[in-house]
Hints:
Blueprint: H1 3-10, H2 22-29, H3 35-44, E1 47-49, E2 53-55, H4 65-79, E3 99-106, E4 111-116, E5 127-130, E6 137-139, H5 143-152, E7 168-170
Antiparallel strand pairs: 1-2, 1-7, 2-3, 3-4, 4-5, 5-6
Helix pairs in contact: 1-5
Protein name: SMI1/KNR4 family protein
Organism: Streptomyces taklimakanensis
InterPro entries: Knr4/Smi1-like_sf
Amino acid sequence: xxxxxxxxxxxxxxxxxxxxxxxxxxxxxxxxxxxxxxxxxxxxxxxxxxxxxxxxxxxxxxxxxxxxxxxxxxxxxxxxxxxxxxxxxxxxxxxxxxxxxxxxxxxxxxxxxxxxxxxxxxxxxxxxxxxxxxxxxxxxxxxxxxxxxxxxxxxxxxxxxxxxxxxxxxxxxxx
Length: 175
């Protein structure tokens, strides 16, 4: 069983099988996305886990929050250049380049991302996580395994297992 399916089973979620225009989404990003993330979006759509974890997903078609998040991050840096330091030592991903590409956030403001570039295939991209002022921590996990561990692994350093009831709540537009 893949991590997306394990996560769905853990929160008693029935896959939605959304039709997402990945070619258009990835064209806007300037990079392919990990297959694990694409499968996650197709199964879950937009929503959040246990009022704690939000994954920048899609509700179908050619839109995806991962693109909107990146574009918003660049607008913020243009208006407030000092914010660029939040992405050090990697920098914020720019289409066709290298850097941090955010895929989610927690209710405690933990930033979740991939490290894109340097010839690493999309499915092999490490997950980066940063809580408070601790800096980015690298995890050799897929996005959905990381999400699973946040919700269900009590020994996981970014986790809330045992503190929240694992569930998935779709946004009303997707229900």
